[in-house]
Write a structure and sequence with these properties.
The complex is a heterodimer of chains A (111) and B (115).
Chain A: E1 4-6, E2 10-14, E3 19-25, E4 32-38, E5 45-51, E6 56-58, E7 62-67, E8 72-77, E9 86-93, E10 99-101, E11 105-110
Parallel strand pairs in A: 2-11
Antiparallel strand pairs in A: 1-3, 3-8, 4-5, 4-9, 6-7, 7-8, 9-10, 9-11
Chain B: E1 5-7, E2 10-13, E3 19-24, E4 31-37, E5 44-50, E6 53-57, E7 65-68, E8 75-79, E9 88-95, E10 105-106, E11 110-114
Parallel strand pairs in B: 2-11
Antiparallel strand pairs in B: 1-3, 3-8, 4-5, 4-9, 5-6, 7-8, 9-10, 9-11
Classes of the chains: A mainly beta (111), B mainly beta (115).
Chain lengths: 111, 115
């Protein structure tokens, strides 16, 4: 069946360090993935996406890596800032454009 | 602010009561989605509309749940005979599918507490 999961529920990093958040998916037919950031009391906010014909995509301070062989993707945040503290979800966009989300990883940034 | 609004932001109701939530998507978006999110979990898909047509419903959407998008603009989600297990954040999202732009923009959600 389809499922998207995350390896670590909580990640604590020091301000200025790089963060890496991992995600595994099970549907090998998936061709589009998105990372969302959700702050307390808010809806998910789009960060970056990647299609299956790519293995890397970069944004501003964020990079998403996709390894289709092991069905794994990761979100890298460079120079993590206090404002990056949130829950991060990977999501799989299905053929009907509904999103399947994982459980989420809470990123805590300490000074 | 993504441009998607939801009302109310918070709702407390007693078990057995009916509740209705409203979502106003970004005006030119033709797709509208409802998700439910419980504490510590990712959002779960409930249903979605393309214009006024409801194209897909999750098995999570029991017969106590109904959603409408009568004019292809705003949408309502009604829960009848609420149960404590319905307590969750109800999220709405919209997207413009015509351009192949898959990005879904989420509203702030309606937090439902059933006592």
């Amino acid at each position: 069946g389809e499922s998207v999961g995350l390896h670590l529920p909580t990640l604590s990093v020091q301000e200025g360090d790089n963060s890496i958040i991992n995600c595994a998916y099970s549907n090998s037919a998936s061709d589009y993935f998105i990372w969302y950031k959700q702050e307390s009391g808010k809806g998910p906010q789009f960060i970056i996406d990647i299609r299956s014909n790519m293995d890397k995509r970069q944004g501003q301070r964020v990079t998403v890596l996709l390894n289709k062989t092991v069905k794994h993707l990761s979100l890298q945040i460079a120079a993590t800032q206090p404002g990056d503290s949130a829950v991060y979800f990977c999501a799989e966009n299905t053929l009907t454009d509904k999103l399947i989300f994982g459980t989420g990883t809470r990123l805590q940034v300490f000074p | 602010d993504t441009g998607v609004s939801q009302d109310p932001r918070h709702k407390i109701t007693k078990r057995g009561q009916n509740v209705t939530f409203r979502c106003d998507p970004i005006s030119e978006h033709n797709r509208l989605y409802w998700y439910r999110q419980t504490l510590g979990q990712g959002p779960e898909f409930l249903t979605y509309f393309q214009n006024e047509a409801q194209l897909e419903k999750s098995r999570l959407l029991s017969d106590r749940f109904s959603a409408e998008r009568p004019k292809g603009s705003f949408s309502t989600l009604e829960i009848q005979r609420t149960e404590q297990g319905d307590s969750a954040m109800y999220l709405c999202a919209s997207s413009l599918s015509d351009r192949g732009d898959y990005e879904q923009y989420f509203g702030p959600g309606t937090r439902l507490t059933v006592t």
